[in-house]
Amino acid sequence: MKVAIIPVTPFQQNCTLIWDEETGKGVVIDPGGDVPQILEVLEHEKIDVERILITHGHIDHVGGAAELRDALDVDVEGPHEADRMLMERVAEQAIQFGLPAAKGCEPDRWLKEGDTVDIAGMEFDVLHCPGHAPGHVVFVNQEAKFAILGDVLFNGSIGRTDLPGGDHATLLASIKNKILPLGDDVSFLCGHGDHSTIGEERRNNPFLKGL
Ligand SMILES: [Zn+2]
Ligand SMILES: [Zn+2]
Questions:
Q1: pTM for the whole structure
Q2: Which of 15, 31, 54, 189 could be disulfide-bonded to 6 (CB atoms 3.0-4.6 Å)?
Q3: How far is 145 from 44, CA to CA, in rounded Å?
Q4: Residues with CB in 5 Å of ion ligand 1
Q5: Residue 27 alpha carbon to ligand 1 centre in Å
Q6: Rounded to an integer, what distance in angstroms lies between the CA atom of residue 89 and that of residue 106?
Q7: How does DSSP assign 11-76, residue by residue?
Q8: Which ligand is nearest to the CA of 193?
């Protein structure tokens, strides 16, 4: 399994490419924008994209999804349908944050707790983790001890909850009930900043004190 991260939009969101080196098959997670740059890396690495995965409906994660889907002719899977309003209002979000024009994106498949998604030939569990956004999902492979957490939990921080649909107590509950039980030895990638492990954050992340 190979991973490449392309920081996209002025929010430096970690658009994440994961693919199988042998087959070349893989996914694009959260193409928030800068689609030409994403396409360049896909071509350079010869990645055969099977699907686009979305963790939640914020502009920096989804702004390029419709454009990339058109370019690659693949399905968009995720987030949870509780983010339907955000997904429909991508154009408004772009204006609100002063970003280049972006199109709304109706996913081909909404995801829910208990679903699985295929990432580079590996099966990942879908967990619904609301709080930062109502329809936020994360992807976990327990065997590989690897997770993609979007904007739920960061290295040293947690997702903001001051945007529409955000709720701090709900986010803490998602982290406590869904993320921390994954185990200290699970490594994760997130939507902004560096990767980390659950254990590292459980011990040192000031936002998790008392959970
Ligand atoms: Zn977000
Ligand atoms: Zn974000």
A1: 0.97
A2: 15
A3: 28
A4: 58, 151
A5: 20
A6: 10
A7: TTEEEEEEE-TTT-EEEEE---S-HHHHHHHHHHTT-EEEEEE-S---HHHHTTHHHHHHHHT-EE
A8: 2
